[in-house]
Design brief:
The chain has helices spanning about 5-20, 20-30, 30-45, 60-85, 105-115, 135-140, 205-215, 230-240, 255-260, 285-295; strands at about 50-55, 55-60, 95-100, 125-130, 150, 165-180, 195-200, 225-230, 245-250, 260-280. It folds into 3 domains: about 5-85, Winged helix-like DNA-binding domain superfamily/Winged helix DNA-binding domain (Arc Repressor Mutant, subunit A, Orthogonal Bundle), CATH 1.10.10; about 85-170 and about 275-300, Periplasmic binding protein-like II (D-Maltodextrin-Binding Protein, domain 2, 3-Layer(aba) Sandwich), CATH 3.40.190; about 175-270, Periplasmic binding protein-like II (D-Maltodextrin-Binding Protein, domain 2, 3-Layer(aba) Sandwich). The strands form 2 sheets. An 8-stranded mixed beta sheet has the order 4-3-5-10-6-9-7-8, with helices on both faces. Strands 1-2 form a two-stranded antiparallel sheet. Helix content is about 40%, strand content about 25%. It is built from 10 helices and 10 strands.
Length: about 300
């Protein structure tokens, strides 16, 4: 085989990753015919087809899937190097870039970065927080725009062994029923809860499915006032609506401390899990290892 043309490989990687020839051509400012020709030359040099056309779609062949794994590794390391050079090999300030899921508890995020807020521990540390959808978070992680992401949804990798990210369980918090102190039920669940109104995590949310299962066990149908798929919004609704809700206590710890809300009960064997997701890389900021090490203390329930 002739020497590998990395320019051709880069074009292949872009098309294989994004799955759309037109979109990649526009992004790279080349014609579709030029882009197709570059990929065809790569196939010729390798002696195998990397794509097959199904209708109007380009689908990776088995060989194409194998080449994609190597291409991802090659260009991911290149982007990592570029990111490192932009930030400096030995920067004056250590900087950790954290992407956060929009459904994450802000109190949990603050707890995670709390070591960085101590000036006696870190005198030259900086951090940046970026709330994004999960799709944008994972894409940014692969492109080294983030050093890690925080999420309350598990990122599966066993069914996708070629994905570059690694998920680590940071903590798990039991789910609680929380509401105003003056309407706290005097009877146990479900009898004492029949006349209450509820604001709940949105339908389809993992916490909502767990609570729905708990209600089904007790043949209980909550009187639903509203739903929210954002923990910050659910926190405000719990505080201001005079309805009860279901969430981990960490989300409303300030309201509980102030007496605006109280915990009615803890749901048995139902938890919200918090994960840190990183990407396999040659270099990682020292701050990242420190934060993950500090968070190990949270694993106790």
């Amino acid at each position: 085989m002739s020497r590998l043309n990395y320019h051709h490989l880069y074009y292949f990687w872009q098309v294989a990753s994004q799955g759309n020839l037109t979109h990649v051509a526009n992004k790279l400012h080349v014609s579709q015919s030029a882009l197709s020709n570059q990929i065809r030359q790569l196939e010729d040099s390798m002696g195998t087809a990397l794509f097959e056309r199904r209708g109007r779609k380009l689908v990776l062949t088995e060989s194409g899937q194998r080449v994609l794994v190597y291409a991802q590794d090659i260009f991911s390391k290149g982007e990592e190097l570029e990111s490192l050079m932009r930030r400096g090999i030995t920067p004056e300030y250590q900087h950790v870039r954290i992407g956060v899921s929009s459904t994450m508890s802000r109190n949990f995020i603050e707890g995670f970065i709390s070591p960085l807020l101590d000036p006696q521990q870190y005198t030259k540390a900086r951090f940046s927080l970026h709330a994004r959808s999960m799709t944008h978070l994972l894409d940014g992680l692969v492109k080294h725009q983030f050093d890690l992401i925080l999420t309350n949804a598990e990122i599966g990798s066993s069914e996708m062994p070629d994905t570059p990210w690694q998920s680590q369980l940071l903590a798990r918090q039991p789910l609680s029923i929380v509401g105003p102190p003056d309407i706290r039920p005097s009877k146990t669940f479900p009898e004492g809860y029949k006349n209450l109104r509820w604001v709940l995590p949105a339908d389809g949310n993992e916490l909502r499915r767990s609570f729905d299962g708990f209600c089904a066990q007790h043949q209980f149908q909550p009187d639903l006032l509203g739903e929210a798929d954002d923990m910050a919004m659910l926190r405000l609704l719990a505080r201001d609506s005079r309805a009860v809700t279901v969430l981990p206590k960490v989300v409303v710890k300030d309201e509980i401390r102030q007496g605006a809300l109280v915990e009615y009960m803890t749901l048995p064997n139902i938890y919200e899990n918090f994960y840190a997701v990183t990407v396999r890389r040659q270099y990682a900021p020292a701050l990242l290892a420190d934060l993950l090490k500090a968070s190990a203390n949270w694993k106790a329930e």
